[in-house]
User: Fold phosphoserine transaminase from Bifidobacterium panos.
Amino acid sequence: MANTLKIPNDMLPEDGRFGCGPSKIRSEQVATLNAGTTTLLGTSHRQRPVRDLVGSIREGLAEFFHLPDDYEIALGNGGASCFWEIACASLITRQAAFGSYGSFSAKFAKSAAIAPFLEDPVVYEVEPGSYCLPERTEYVDAYCWAHNETSTGVAAPVRRVEGSMEQGALTLIDGTSAAGSLPVDISQTDAYYFSPQKAFGSDGGMWWAILSPAAIERAARLEANVNLPETNRWVPPFLSLSSALDNSRKNQTLNTPAIATLIMMDDQVRWLNDNGGMDWATARCAKSASMLYSWAERSDYAEPFVTDPDARSNAVVTINLDESIPAYQVVSALRDNGIMDTGGYRKLGRNQLRIGVFPSIEPADVLALTGCIDYVVERL
Assistant:
């Protein structure tokens, strides 16, 4: 039945894209690509037009995140997963401590575990659906966790571990599905890094990082000593944070970026700032998320997966369905009606929906989605 069920047109959202990454790209962003076909697309990323574009994004991000005066913004190719390897090569001196509470927060810890020049990481772990932050740990020089666990819809606080600055440890935060959707005090971090395919409504394949002076100094020191026998450290050019920062200061990347991604991201950053910046974006996401959580709590067949309201994400919302209602059938019926990417994270293996509520997604469409889910479930 799910394959043929038709939802009335007047119930459908205007835009049915609710993916958690890649996420919805606004039509206005796509339109900017046409404007850039003769001046940007197909031209050198080291020439002024593209460098001005990169500079515009860096300035816009500095405004959006209320950047402290001595912090800098760097960028490179490879996505946030590449930045895990960059951090292992250029930011972790000897040993790191990790908060692990889902697939993505665990992956950074695994990268550190297999780096031959680092000691085994200290991992503070909890089952999916909650979070745990690393605690002060002797000899650790970096504390790492995810602001938002994309796989589970858990949001974690961003604050320095007590005493971490006194021990000279850095705070490295994965902001991939949080940046642009959740509030953050950048001064509580040394590297806040993310990809643009979530709240910044662009394509993947790039990483952006906001770096403190301590992080910049750490990278320079580690990479300067890379050839000393006692370090046993390998920092290939592609994973050199210092090299990425040197290029970023020139508004370029080490190797060729996707210009279309930059064009769309620049438009999105301008749109966010023009509407009110971080305060506006985070309030909009909170409104959309609240609609979903409230709907699930009222429902007799659904409930929020994250039981602690303080740990619930306003960027990625996960909803458990009663076992009598197969989530895959609901997801399939929604997709047949143009409502896409509502399935749960595959590796989590839960009977649930996972819904992105990034700034580009209209709250009215989120409300319409809840009605469509009810309509489908009633007829399964």
